[in-house]
């Protein structure tokens, strides 16, 4: 197990190694440099607002919103405005009524890196722009195959790997969204039952901005034996953000979150992981370490981290969950 962990860490390139390999791919900004790009983007969110948005062990402060989210919001505002102008030009060229398609922002990165909290806060920040756009958040968890199918295919321990998703369903959703479908239904995933909830859906009604959060959104390779799709999720994404950190930090956050869940949500007798709450501290931690190294770390190294170079923005987090560097793709 130690050799697997060391090998995986060796394969999972650090931010500095990425910069050395692709020195001209990104402009790199320190926290202070990035904060200056906020310009006149207003702060319209309070500490109380953030209390309802942050994850179990993923702190986010008003300072983080001012320093990181507002400059990013300004950048997104420029991109979305430009996209809408180009859309109107195309509609004029084709002689058809102007439409405003949903702008899709992808947020990706490792398990436990803080994608969910980041996405919730970003959605809240964007929805408070002066023109109050409708912003929806969808996680790719809703496109996981139900446990029954995963069990039949021997994939229960590969949940979160590319082969564990109903890729066709996710692509159909994204295509319909871009084509202006009035109402779309996304299956609901329960972390409590660790499964898709039967006959329960999140309804999406033509938002101006959709934040799509998940592990494998920027991948390009087909699964073994698949000839389709000829189109990938990344082809339908307008802007992509990769939330990154050193593997040692992510591992620590994963273990901390797991132990917190063991003492809270896992205590519910109906929880899929209820048996974990009955283990001693050492046994529970050993179980968490095993899951991290045998499943989540392998997925990170093989599938998630290799897509980092494709993101338009890479957010490099430090040990305290604060973003320390912002990388903005040049090309």
Would you mind describing this structure in some detail?
Mean pLDDT is 90; it is low at 1-10. 41% of the residues lie in helices and 17% in strands. It has one domain (2-98, 106-141, 208-221, 231-329): Rossmann fold. Helix 1 (2-11) packs parallel to helix 11 and helix 9 crosses helix 11. The protein has a seven-stranded mixed β-sheet. Strands 4-5 form a two-stranded antiparallel sheet. It has 331 residues and is α/β, with parallel strands linked by helices. The longest helix has 33 residues, at 62-94. The protein has eleven helices and nine strands.
Task: List its traits.
two-stranded antiparallel sheet; Rossmann fold; 7-stranded mixed sheet; about 325 residues; disordered N terminus
Indicate the mean pLDDT: 90
| Strands in their spatial order, largest beta sheet | 1-9-8-7-2-6-3
Query: What percent strand?
Result: 15-25%
Number of domains: 1
The dominant shape is globular
Radius of gyration, in Å, reads 20 Å
Number of helices: 11
Note the gap between the termini: 39 Å
CATH C-level class: Alpha Beta
**What does the largest sheet look like?**
7 strands, mixed
- Which sequence of SSEs, written as H and E, runs from N to C? HHEHHHEHEHHEEEEHHHEE
What is the architecture at the second tier of CATH?
Answer: 3-Layer(aba) Sandwich
Which residues form runs of ≥5 with pLDDT under 50? 1-10
State the share of residues found in helices, binned by percent: 40-55%
């Amino acid at each position: 197990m130690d050799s697997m962990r060391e090998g995986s860490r060796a394969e999972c390139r650090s931010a500095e190694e990425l910069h050395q390999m692709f020195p001209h791919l990104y402009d790199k900004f320190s926290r202070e440099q990035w904060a200056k790009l906020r310009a006149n983007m207003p702060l319209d969110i309070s500490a109380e607002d953030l209390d309802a948005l942050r994850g179990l062990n993923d702190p986010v402060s008003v300072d983080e919103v001012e320093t990181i989210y507002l400059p990013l919001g300004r950048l997104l505002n420029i991109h979305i405005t430009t996209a809408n102008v180009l859309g109107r030009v195309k509609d004029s060229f084709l002689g058809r009524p102007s439409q405003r398609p949903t702008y899709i922002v992808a947020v990706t990165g490792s398990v436990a890196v803080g994608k969910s909290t980041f996405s919730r806060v970003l959605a809240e920040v964007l929805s408070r722009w002066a023109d109050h756009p409708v912003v929806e958040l969808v996680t790719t968890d809703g496109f996981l195959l139900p446990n029954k199918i995963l069990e039949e295919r021997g994939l229960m321990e590969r949940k979160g790997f590319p082969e564990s998703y109903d890729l066709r369903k996710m692509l159909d959703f994204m295509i319909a969204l871009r084509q202006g479908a009035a109402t779309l239904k996304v299956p609901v995933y329960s972390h409590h039952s660790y499964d898709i909830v039967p006959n329960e859906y999140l309804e999406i009604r033509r938002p101006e901005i959709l934040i799509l959060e998940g592990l494998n959104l920027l991948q390009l390779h087909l699964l073994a034996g698949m000839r389709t799709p000829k189109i990938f999720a990344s082809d339908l994404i307008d802007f992509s953000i990769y939330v990154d950190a050193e593997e040692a930090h992510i591992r620590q956050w994963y273990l901390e979150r797991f132990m917190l869940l063991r003492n809270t949500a896992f205590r519910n007798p109906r929880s899929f992981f209820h048996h974990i709450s009955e283990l001693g501290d050492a046994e529970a931690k050993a179980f968490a370490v095993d899951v991290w190294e045998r499943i989540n770390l392998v997925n990170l190294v093989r599938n998630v981290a290799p897509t980092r170079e494709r993101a338009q923005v890479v957010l490099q987090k430090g040990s305290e969950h604060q973003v320390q560097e912002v990388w903005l793709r040049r090309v």
